[in-house]
Specification:
Layout (H helix, E strand, L loop, with lengths): L1 E3 L2 E3 L1 H28 L8 H20 L5 H5 L1 H25 L7 H27 L5 E6 L3 H11 L6 E8 L3 H6 L6 H6 E3 L6 H7 L4 E4 L10 H9 L3 E3 L1 H9 L9 H6 L8 H36 L5 E7 L5 E7 L24 H9 L6 H7 L3 E3 L6 H10 L12 E3 L1 H5 L6 H16 L3 H16 L6
Parallel strand pairs: 3-4, 3-6, 4-5, 6-7, 10-11
Antiparallel strand pairs: 1-2, 8-9
Helix pairs in contact: 1-2, 1-5, 2-4, 2-19, 4-5, 13-14, 13-15
């Protein structure tokens, strides 16, 4: 895995993004050359014209990134990718036309822009189709052997099979004493995983076996008891050039979350990361919060006013809804939202997680939640300093008290300001149960461990995808 400003980036995604950038940049040169040749004009390359052509891939690849063209579902499904590519090209046309109008010094002819986007769109589609064929046939990928074949190892194999963009090819899982029972309980429809499970011959060392299958990476798949793990043989493998990683590292690098079942307090203390933020980072993060919030408020003001009007005319009661939430260092504050539930939604009852098709939500409220318009007033919380634009979602004190008692390390998420959007929000659907809260905490811990302004910008970009292609909204 490549690491950029603490964040683990899939080499497959990075390669696709770089290839797309080069394809668009090359298309710009080709389109300009063709247009000048068609008009019988002499082409004189200058620094300004070079920068103008560089603007096109910067804009298009950024929009592709924001709309999720490099997400797992788009890499696995060409139909999903085609929709996101088409949307990105359409948005790019308007955005580049606006840049050409606002900065007339840039020689961004409309004809050149159009030809560039047509050529680059075709090339990008071809690049991703070829990558789809390659990953589908598992031609590329680091060859991985999983040590252990119990239930935990099986889950790890499934995660790797569902993430072709991670660039990993599981070739087998080595069975140890005690794994046979877990293997026999696998459902019949998981024959692919069963086929990967092999027992190591007593006549051969682990290194000899892994050398024969061209293994490049060993992942410890099970929670082994003391004395079960073949330490000496693993040392020999590592000294022979074979990487060795544990479950925590695998899930963090390949799947973008921290495996909560494997986390221990000493790991948080000694692991790289979990550095918090220094004064400079906090200052830049605050500046980013203010700038992004003001931009979003300006751009969304017509939609914001429409939401206020819809709430006002559709049901009795206040337009805005205040609710106590837990913020930085476990202090509480009132979060602002457009009211989407009935006025007496929780009257006489204990707080409850929102459910799918929740009867407490008004018809207009369903629309506001689906489009996330009800979240817009939280921009005022960001400007006020209660929240950040990016961070773990703030939860109600009632639920925090319950979750801290049942979910390990839940309180650690309050070391940063809560956010409107975050790593958990763009990677996992709406959390409406204890298990959902556990899963979202795994993503929050990844964000806290690997925090950087680069990761914040990446999350802000990908929030556009969540808005345009909503899922898991309740």
């Amino acid at each position: 895995m490549a690491r950029i400003f603490r964040h683990h980036v899939s080499p497959v995604k990075l390669t696709l993004a770089v290839a797309d950038f080069i394809a668009v940049f090359g298309s710009a040169f080709l389109a300009e050359y063709y247009r000048y040749w068609a008009l019988d004009l002499s082409l004189d390359q200058t620094a300004v014209s070079f920068f103008a052509k560089l603007t096109i891939p910067i804009v298009l690849v950024t929009i592709l990134l924001g709309l999720g063209a490099y997400q797992s579902d788009a890499i696995r499904d060409m139909k999903v990718f085609f929709v996101r590519l088409s949307t990105s090209l359409l948005i790019s046309i308007f955005l580049l036309a606006a840049i050409a109008y606002l900065f007339p010094v840039l020689p961004l002819w409309r004809s050149i822009l159009f030809i560039t986007l047509v050529i680059s769109g075709s090339l990008i589609l071809l690049i991703h189709w070829l990558s789809f064929v390659v990953f589908k046939e598992s031609v590329l990928g680091k060859r991985v052997v999983v040590l252990g074949a119990g239930a935990d190892a099986v889950e790890l194999i499934q995660q790797a099979e569902n993430a072709p963009e991670a660039g990993l090819k599981i070739i087998e899982a080595i069975e140890f004493d005690g794994d046979q029972e877990s293997r026999n309980t696998l459902p019949e429809n998981e024959r692919l995983i069963k086929a990967k499970i092999n027992a190591l011959s007593n006549k051969r060392s682990l290194l000899e076996h892994l050398s024969d299958v061209d293994c490049e990476l060993i992942v410890i798949g099970n929670h082994f008891e003391a004395g079960q793990l073949p330490i000496k043989e693993l040392i020999a493998c590592k000294l022979a050039g074979i990487e060795v990683k544990d479950r925590l590292t695998f899930y963090e690098e390949a799947r973008g979350y921290v495996d909560l079942d494997s986390v221990k307090a000493d790991w948080i203390i000694f692991a790289e990361g979990f550095k918090g933020t220094n004064v400079l980072e906090r200052s830049f993060k605050r500046l980013l919060d203010i700038v992004i919030s003001l931009i979003f408020l300006f751009l969304s003001s017509p939609i914001f006013l429409l939401g206020i009007l819809l709430v006002r005319i559709s049901s009795r009661g206040p337009v805005f809804y205040k609710q106590e939430r837990v913020g930085l260092n476990s202090t509480t504050f009132d979060v602002l939202k457009l009211r989407s539930m009935k006025v007496d939604a929780e009257q006489g009852n204990q707080p409850a997680f929102a459910q799918e098709n929740d009867p407490r939500v008004t018809p207009v409220g369903h629309f506001l939640r689906r489009t996330r318009i009800d979240e817009l007033p939280q921009l005022l919380n960001v400007l006020r300093g209660d929240m950040s634009f990016v961070g773990p979602r703030p939860e109600r004190p009632y639920f925090v008290e319950q979750l801290e008692g049942s979910v390990p390390f839940y309180g650690e998420r309050h070391c940063l300001k809560p956010g409107i959007t975050g790593w958990a929000q763009i990677r996992y659907p709406y959390g409406a149960s204890l298990e959902d809260s556990r899963r979202k905490l795994e993503y929050d811990l990844y964000y806290i461990k690997n925090y950087s302004l680069f990761l914040d910008l990446l999350i802000i970009l990908q929030t556009v995808r969540v808005i345009l292609f909503p899922h898991g909204v309740r």
